[in-house]
Amino acid sequence: MATSHRNPANLRVVLESPSGTRSYVVTPFSVLDPAEYAKTGFYIDLTSTNAFLDERAQGVWTLEVTDMTEPRTTAALQNFKLRILGH
């Protein structure tokens, strides 16, 4: 996930599966240093999770990004990729 948000530590990121299961993949008020991302933008690899164990991958997945301190802040979600592995 990459965003132009000026203070990524304020972001909460929730991934929702087609069946409605929600997983908080980035929690707000973390130790992310905004100065580190000021020039290059914020980028994070969303790590693996077992929250969606035994669910089907087919369907619409939703990524919800919320600024928990400044809801009127304008920023862009530059991109995100979702790679699903299973057996």
From TrEMBL:
What biological-process terms (Gene Ontology) are attached?
Answer: proteolysis
Q: Which InterPro entries match?
A: Galactose-bd-like_sf (IPR008979), P_dom (IPR002884)
Domain (P/Homo B): residue spans on this chain? 1-87
Keyword Hydrolase tagged: yes
The record's section on SUPFAM superfamilies has:
Galactose-binding domain-like
**Which UniProt keyword terms apply here?**
Hydrolase, Protease
Query: One Pfam family name from the record?
Result: P_proprotein
The molecular function terms in GO held by this entry are: serine-type endopeptidase activity
Residue ranges annotated as coiled coil are: none
Specify the protein name. Answer: P/Homo B domain-containing protein
Q: Which organism is it from?
A: Xanthomonas arboricola pv. pruni MAFF 301420
